[in-house]
Amino acid sequence: MNKITDNKQEEYNDKQNNEKQKINLTADSGYSTSNNLAELEKEKYKERFEFYIPDAIYQNSKRNNSQKEIVFDKSKFIYHKDIDKFECPNGKFLNFVKNFKKRGYWIFHYRCNFCRNCPYFGKCTRDKRGRTISVSEHQPLIDKMRQKLSTKEGEKIYGKRKTIVEPVFGNMSHNLGFREFLLRGIKKVRGEFSLMCNAHNLKKITRFLKEQNLLLTEALAKSSTYRN
Q1: What sign does the CA torsion over 160, 162, 167, 173 have?
Q2: 105-112 and 78-80: which strand pairing?
Q3: Which of 62, 106, 124, 185 is the most buried (most CB within 10 A)?
Q4: 3-state SS of the chain: helix, strand, coil percent to 5?
Q5: How many CA atoms, within 13 angstroms, populate the side-chain half-sphere of residue 17?
Q6: Is the pTM of this model over 0.70?
Q7: How far apart are CA 18 and CA 21, in angstroms?
Q8: What strands, in cross-sheet order, belong to the sheet with 105-112?
Q9: Nearest CA to 52 among 70, 32, 79?
């Protein structure tokens, strides 16, 4: 009796673990907006998904393989919360200038007043008014995402896009010439995209059958055998 109870408990625990296992979702930098990252912090998303979405600056740095350190990159400026100022790599402070709303979120603007007499003027900035930095109110979320993407696990998960997601769109747009939708309306566009997906999948199936020297009927018969 105890053995049956233990088995049922193990099955229940396995079911609970599977339900709690998060789904990894990746997207390109076009989806990395402050509003999107803030929305994804809500519990209804966090408890179900793990997101990997690089911002444009981070993604470009990876694409260009820029391993060398950029001394005057914005990430090298240290923010001092107690005085609300940024400190540049040369030890000078950037003062708060103004803030404004952009697409529904706040942007904070900082400027340094010591640049013209700085030995790094021309390298850090060429603006005679001084180096400026603009940061979003959601900058901590962007930094958090960059840190997650920079881990070994993050690099491994996001790297799968290159072999799973990107080749599909590359084939559709470049090889099949599908660069825009011809129809209008969600329902029609979904139908049009479904046709393109079918064409893509049929070409993959055809190539696979040719490589394996199989007829479609033979492949279907084998598939049916494996399922049974």
Answers
A1: positive
A2: unpaired
A3: 124
A4: 50, 15, 30
A5: 6
A6: no
A7: 5
A8: 78-80, 85-87, 93-102, 105-112, 132-136
A9: 32
